[in-house]
Each structure stands twice: as C-alpha cells, then as structure tokens.
C-alpha cells in the first residue's frame, strides 16, 4: 500500500513537471510572443518588453524561473487587467467548480437510475431508448445544447434568464447544459460496469438464495460496479472541464473558462498560463485522489 | 490457429462465406443503422466535394435587403433561400454546404496526424518497453491532464489561426488513445505463438513489427479512427465557436453557431441549423463506427 502511494506520488510529481513544461510552451510556441502582443510597436519598445518579461534569457533559465514562480502562485501580471494573473484565476475557480459539481450531481441523478435499469433490463425497450439517448447526446456539441436550451427556456418561454450567474435561476441553464453533456458519458460507463458485474457467479448465488431482486442489484451488484464507475468518471474529468469552458462562454458565466477564452483572444498570456495550469492541476489532483481511493476501497488490493 | 486468424483479419481468407470475417461484414453492411449512417455521410461528403456546384448561392454574397429571411416553410420565407438568410443576408443553405468542407477536412486530417503519432508511440512503447514505455506513458498522462479544447485553443491562438495549425494541434492533442490501444495490442500479441515462431526462425524486429504485429492492430485502429473523426469534428466546431477558427472568411459550422448565438432572439434558425448539421454528421459517423466495432472487434461489446 505505501509502496503504491510512493510510486503514485512520484508519478504525480513527474506529471506536474510535464504540465508546467506544456504551460510554459504556450508562451513560446509562437517563437516571438512579443511580436504577437505588440505587432505594430517599434523594435525599441519590443526589446523593452522582452527584457521586462525575461524573454532574452536562455530557455532553460526561463523554464526554471517559470516553475519556481508557478510553485509560489506567481504567473506575472495580466497585460489587460494589470492585476496578478493567479489571483484573477483563483477568484473565478469556485464558480467553475460549482458549475461542474452541479452538472455532475444532475448527470448522476439521471444516469445512475437509467444506467442501472438499462443494464438490468438489457435489450428491452428501456435499454434501447437509453442507448439511443447516449448516441444522440454524444453527437451534439455542448455549446449548441446550451444555445438550444437558451432558445427554448429563455427566449421562447421566457422562464429563465438568458445568461449570468447571479441568481439560482440563472445557474439552472448552464448546469443543465453541462449536465446534459455529461449524462450520456456517465450512462454508458454505469451500464457497462453493471453489465460486467451482473453476469458474475456471486450475483447468481445471491439470487438463488432467494434474496429480493432489488437488494441483489443495489447491494450486491452495484457495490462492486461502483468502483470502476468512480475511476472512469475521474478519468473523464478533463472532458468535463472542457465542457465547462464552452458552457461558461455560452452563458457568460464568470468562471475560469470564460476568463481564459477571453484572455486567449487578447493574447493575455499570464492569465492563459495561470488558468490552463490551474485547471490541469485540478485534473491531476482528481486523478490522484481517484487512484488512491480506488486502492483504499478495493479490499483485494488493500490486503495484499 | 494464430496464423490463420491473422490472415483472416488481413482479408486473405475472408472470401469464403463460412468465415467469421465475412459473416460479421455482412451483418455490418446490412444493419439499418449502418445504412442510415452511410447515406447521411454520402450526402455530407458529396456536399463538401461539390460545394461550389451544388450550393444555390455564393456563400459570401451579402444583401441587406434580404437579411433575416426565415426558412421557406415559415410565413415570410422565400423558396429561393430554402433555409433562410443570416444577419447580412447570406444564404444559410449555401453556407452550410460550404461549411461541410472544413468540418470533414479538419476531422479527417487531424485524425491522420493523431494516427501517425499515436500508432508509432504505441508500437514503440509496447515493443521496446522499459524506460521508453514509461516516458511515453508520462507524455500520455500529461496530455490527458489538460482539457483538450483549452490546450488546442491556447496553441492555435499562439501559433496564429490557420487551417494547418488547427489540424496539427487537434492531431497532437488527440493521439493518446491510439497509443494506448496499440500498446495494449502489442503487449498481447507479443506473447502469441506466431510472433514467437517468427522470432525463432530469425525474423528481424522491425519486420515482425510491420509484417506481423501492425496488420493485426488494423481492426482496432479502423474502429478507433471513425470515432476519433467524430470527436475531431466536434473539437473543430468548438474551436471556431470560441473564435479561433481557420482565420479565413470561409464559413464553418462552429463559426455559424457562434455568430447565430447573438441573434438567437430574432432568428432561431441561425444557431439551430448548423448545429443540426454537426449533429447529423457526427451521429452518422458514430453509428457506422459502433457497428464497425461490433463487426471487427467482438471483444469490445
């Protein structure tokens, strides 16, 4: 167990370094970011900015400085807002995490019952219906789902606000949009995990002992299917945050995603780097927690 | 046994009606879902190839007199503009037809890039093993630590938006699935008798990889590729929705949704129809891909 923990933590550190390298590369991908930021400025001004940003040092020096600054939460000042980029991103993090959590809760509320029922009643009308919904849902762009919901609930029926994040009513459409994007994903994972477990001998044994079917499903089958479900959902967290970025843009939700998208359009690199880095850290941490939880909750591994 | 199986997946034996390959193939080809998907794809691909000839109007031609003409089945519709016009009077149908070009081109080309990178990484990872395997695994872990769309967006913006940039960036942010699938197949195949036999009679390492291992991974790669094209089309649409499209004035479906979003209160068809085009195309690819998986890869179901 502790050997696993140490190995897993080591991998965490290595991946963190890799994430910093990629984030660092965003600024340098263009070759000369200063030419990109101020295309019409005279060379003297450009040289001044290059000096101020430390861009004239050798790349390895710059990378070490980037990592040590990033570790202290310093990504420089936003070119546009003239404030520390890190703070601007951290301020908006709760909104993004709230949107994501709401969406996960909504998606689980739908996907758990439907996924379990369609596994138990395999190849029935319910199962085929659920499979069709999964198929449709995975073929729609999430931002389009958002605009269609907006068209119906905010424009046509005038039930909910078009955009924003100030009231509970305004949170509903973004949460439902991201939830609708997430539900098919979860539904497929839950269905296939349940199918795998339902065919096992111990489930048949439980049934043959005369235990009520719903107890067999909930207590015997689901308990063992739950673990892979958690793992796969953890692995899909990047997709979920990507969906959050698009949802925030559609509904003007003041979260990290919208901040980064705006910053990318303005070539405000400190914010882009801070935002991309922090979102990646969220994903890396979620993956670490899921892996540790998996080993901790799985007695066959824990006892070894 | 192992040798004959590998031949079969290469298509050498597939001609005999009794073989598993041809039965699976017939089940695939006659499936209503496959037929529907293929028909939709034929229409979309045909529209993309023949866009300048089949589009009723010039997709860039503006006319302020005609702006916000609704689709023809609505009260103020005009049959000359069957799907209506946009905020500057451009024909929506013609723009949709031309938009199919970018979607399909980027979708397929990005997957070709992913395929080249991912299959190479997977083969090397599975065959060489050891430190190289760990290193490639770490690169995969790092790639998976970012929301793909955000990473692609940042790099496309930094490199300057262009069609080639989009294709390369989407390709380089979507290769890890190939690496994982091919690596797993190589690890499984490495232990098979026919590979061992080849090694025993002195066949070189690279010849084993290219003549014996790679052909056996083809079914999984084909299945994965169809589904990846669907993902790449969605990703391209998301990029142009977020405003870093190909950088040209050429219409794309994502960009049409993005522009249409601002007129959602006055012209419902502007954001709705391009989304339906994406939905139909991606759905068709997914339908065909799923059936293909059932036919080629019985383990996955």
Description of the molecule:
The complex is a heterodimer of chains A (304) and B (301). Chain A is mainly alpha-helical. Chain A has 14 helices and no strands. In chain A, α6 (125-137) crosses α8 (168-198). The longest helix of chain A has 36 residues, at 85-120. The N and C termini of chain A lie close together (8 Å). The relative contact order of chain A is 0.13. Chain B has 301 residues and is an all-alpha fold. Chain B is elongated. In chain B, α5 (92-128) runs antiparallel to α6 and α9 (176-190) runs antiparallel to α11. Classes of the chains: A mainly alpha (304), B mainly alpha (301). At the A-B interface, α1, α7, α11, α12 and α13 of A face α6, α7, α11, α12 and α13 of B.
Which percent range describes the beta-strand content of chain B?
under 5%
Note the main sheet of chain A: none
pLDDT < 50 runs, ≥5 residues of chain A: none
Structural class of chain B: mainly alpha
Task: Indicate the radius of gyration of chain A in whole angstroms.
Answer: 24 Å
Work out the number of β strands of chain A: 0
What string, H for helix and E for strand, traces the elements of chain A in order?
HHHHHHHHHHHHHH
- What coarse outline of chain B follows from CA principal-axis ratios? elongated
Counting helices, strands and paired strands, the structural category of chain A is: mainly alpha
Q: In angstroms, what is the radius of gyration of chain B? A: 23 Å
Shape of chain A: flat
Low-confidence stretches of chain B at least 5 residues in length (pLDDT < 50)? Answer: 1-18
């Amino acid at each position: 167990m502790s050997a696993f923990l140490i190995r897993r933590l080591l991998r965490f550190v290595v991946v963190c370094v890799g994430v910093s390298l990629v984030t660092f590369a965003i600024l340098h991908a263009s070759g000369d970011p200063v030419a990109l930021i101020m295309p019409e400025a005279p060379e003297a001004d450009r040289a001044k900015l290059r000096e101020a940003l430390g861009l004239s040092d050798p790349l390895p020096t710059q990378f070490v400085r980037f990592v040590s600054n990033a570790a202290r939460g310093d990504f420089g000042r936003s070119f546009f807002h003239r404030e520390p980029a890190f703070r601007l991103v951290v301020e908006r993090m709760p909104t993004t995490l709230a949107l994501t959590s709401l969406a996960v809760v909504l998606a689980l509320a739908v996907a758990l019952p439907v996924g379990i029922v369609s596994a138990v009643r395999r190849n029935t009308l319910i199962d085929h219906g659920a499979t069709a919904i999964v198929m449709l849902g995975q073929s729609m762009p999430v931002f389009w789902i958002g605009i269609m919901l907006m068209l119906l609930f905010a424009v046509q029926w005038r039930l909910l606000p078009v955009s924003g994040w100030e009231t509970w009513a305004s949170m509903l459409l973004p949460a439902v949009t991201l939830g609708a994007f997430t539900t098919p994903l979860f539904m497929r994972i839950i269905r296939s995990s349940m199918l795998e477990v339902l065919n096992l001998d111990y489930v048949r044994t439980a049934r043959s002992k005369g235990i009520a079917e719903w107890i067999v499903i909930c207590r015997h089958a689901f308990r063992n299917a739950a673990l892979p479900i958690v793992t796969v959902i953890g692995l899909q967290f990047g997709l979920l945050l990507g969906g959050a970025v698009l949802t925030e843009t559609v509904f003007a939700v003041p979260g990290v995603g919208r901040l980064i998208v705006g910053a990318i359009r303005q070539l405000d690199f400190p914010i882009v780097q801070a935002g991309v880095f922090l979102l990646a850290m969220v994903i890396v941490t979620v993956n670490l927690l899921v892996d540790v939880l998996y080993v901790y909750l799985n007695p066959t591994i824990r006892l070894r | 046994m192992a040798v004959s199986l590998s031949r079969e997946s290469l298509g050498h034996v597939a001609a005999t009606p009794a073989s598993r390959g041809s039965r699976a193939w017939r089940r695939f080809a006659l499936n209503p879902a496959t037929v529907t998907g293929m028909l939709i794809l034929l229409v979309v691909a045909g529209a993309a190839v023949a866009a300048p000839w089949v589009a009723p109007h010039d997709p860039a031609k503006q006319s302020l007199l005609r702006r916000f003409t609704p689709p023809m089945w609505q009260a103020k519709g005009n049959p000359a503009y069957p799907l209506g016009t946009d905020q500057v009077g451009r024909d929506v149908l013609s723009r949709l037809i031309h938009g199919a070009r970018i979607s399909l081109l980027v979708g397929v080309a990005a997957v070709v890039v992913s395929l080249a990178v991912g299959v190479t990484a997977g083969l090397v990872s599975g065959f060489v093993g050891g430190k190289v395997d760990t290193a490639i695994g770490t690169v995969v872990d790092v790639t998976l630590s970012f929301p793909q769309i955000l990473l692609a967006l940042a790099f496309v913006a930094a490199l300057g938006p262009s069609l080639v940039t989009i294709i390369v960036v989407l390709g380089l942010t979507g290769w890890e699935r190939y690496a994982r699938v091919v690596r797993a197949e190589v690890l499984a195949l490495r232990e098979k008798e026919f590979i061992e036999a080849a090694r025993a009679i002195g066949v070189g390492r690279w010849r084993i990889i290219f003549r014996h291992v790679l052909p056996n991974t083809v079914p999984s790669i084909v299945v994965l590729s169809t589904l990846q094209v669907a993902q790449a089309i969605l990703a391209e649409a998301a990029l142009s929705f977020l405003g870093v499209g190909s950088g040209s004035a050429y219409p794309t479906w994502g960009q049409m949704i993005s522009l249409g979003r601002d007129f959602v209160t006055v012209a419902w068809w502007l954001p709705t129809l391009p989304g339906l085009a994406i939905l139909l195309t991606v759905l068709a690819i997914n339908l065909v891909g799923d059936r293909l998986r059932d036919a080629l890869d019985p383990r996955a179901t």
